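Tutorial, part two.
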Amino acid sequence: MAREESQRLLRTNTLDTKNCVQMIKKLLTRSIITSDNAGIERNNLVSEERIRYKPLPLNTYRLKPCSERVGNTRFLITESGTVRLENSKSRNSGILLTESVEISQNGMQITYTQCREIPQYNTDIIEPEYSVRRKTYTLEALPQKLYKYYDRATKFVELVKATTPKIIVYTKSMKCMLMENSKNTCFVASFNNGQTYIRKGEDIDMYDVESEIFVPVSKDKSYITQFNQETSALICKASMRYKTMKKLNKQVSSNKVITFPLTLGRQVF
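Running the prediction step on this input gives:
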């Protein structure tokens, strides 16, 4: 059953990619945009280090439009590559946008918009009125109070990159995808027996479609005794493919002629 399901998914690029994306999200979204980890780290810095801290510029090159809602915050990447964070709150009349942050594709220009409800002293007025304040900054001049928004936007962009294939390689037994993120690069190998190898940096998991669970893989070669012979062979094969695709990535990343995702081989399922 698992083999048939895997073959069905591998017949279609879109379905297979979506399936892998969902599995990667299960691994990555535990804290990537739901908490302000960067803010906590900044608070632990001594005063001088905190003053010197500057967020690194993000970029959304080659990323497709998408959106994700986490609590009262909506994250978006638009057609033009702009990143938007929209904070809102629920009202009787619907959803009220309270503030938004818009970041340019190269991460160097930030527009902060704040919406405030104007107090009404006339009780006959049903529809509330709002004041809107908008200001644009460069990244260099961004106020520290807005760093937390920029950090959350960066985490969201990294999540999208970690689920966007940059290089796809087909072999007789698997489909391999190296993702767009450069830090702790994500790599996925989907095998035709229903198992999936997922790597993020040095962390490796094997996903089984029947049990629908992730099994952490030992970082040394003790996985040979951790799994059965067939699964151990698949892990070894995926690890070798990961190394070759990382080398290929270095060679093609600076090539402006290549259209990404770069696809090598063809489907045989």
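The mean pLDDT is 79. In part three we will examine how such features are distributed along the chain.
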